[in-house]
Specification:
Length: about 220
């Protein structure tokens, strides 16, 4: 039985998830909550690392169906091994992407059946639904420019291993942007759209939105 709080962060490339999640985690820990941060595709075991590398850095022309099922395989193990045990202990779990990303990237972005993705999501997640989902609302042109600046500051060896999605044409990223907003409208009960602003202002809004949920954490 889930006792903790499951919070996911969604958004396009360069939207700031990797900046905002640690800030929220530190703030929650200072308030006395047990927190773990994780991400999808997950990393940290031979299985997770193999799936992560194949999906994000694989050079072969992987079909959309293969991508989708690899994501679901990793998700099933991720929920079983990391997310659900932490929730059962009463932890707050902060996850950088979850099944909404699969709907958006493989569905809206690459044209795979949305209904089939949703069915696979429920099987792989064991029916687990995030309590709260943040959509960091950054336009694709802005997010991609930000990501390019970040990559430029990385060591040369890291620059040679860019995420293949970052190199997709702008039209692909616009499809993702529209897809995320469609999901936010459909499931407004759990989505909180965080407009682009300074890091500090976005974090303040994120903290405001999570406050009403904290009373349910055991």
């Amino acid at each position: 039985m889930k006792q903790g709080l499951f919070v996911t962060f969604e958004g396009g490339e360069g939207s700031g998830k990797s900046t905002q999640i640690p800030l929220l985690s530190d703030w929650l820990k200072l308030k006395g909550y047990n927190v773990i941060s994780t991400s999808e595709p997950p990393k940290g075991s031979h299985l997770f690392d193999a799936i992560h590398h194949a999906l994000k850095f694989g050079k072969e022309d992987m079909c959309t169906g293969s991508e989708m099922f690899l994501l679901q395989a990793g998700r099933a193990q991720h929920v079983h091994e990391v997310i659900q045990p932490a929730l059962n202990k009463g932890y707050i779990v902060l996850c950088d992407r979850f099944y909404d990303s699969t709907i958006v990237y493989q569905g809206y972005g690459r044209g795979f059946s949305l209904s089939e993705i949703r069915a696979a999501n429920m099987i792989a997640s064991g029916g687990l639904i995030p309590d709260l989902t943040y959509l960091l609302d950054v336009k694709p042109e802005v997010g991609l420019a930000q990501r390019k600046r970040q990559i430029k500051d990385l060591p040369t060896t890291h620059q040679l291993h860019q995420d293949k999605y970052e190199n997709k044409e702008l039209d692909f990223h616009k499809k993702l942007f529209r897809g995320y907003h469609a999901l936010a409208r459909e499931e407004a009960f759990r989505f909180r759209v965080i407009p682009r602003d300074t890091i500090e202002q976005m974090q303040e809004r994120i903290r405001e939105e999570i406050n009403p949920f904290l009373k349910y954490v055991k």
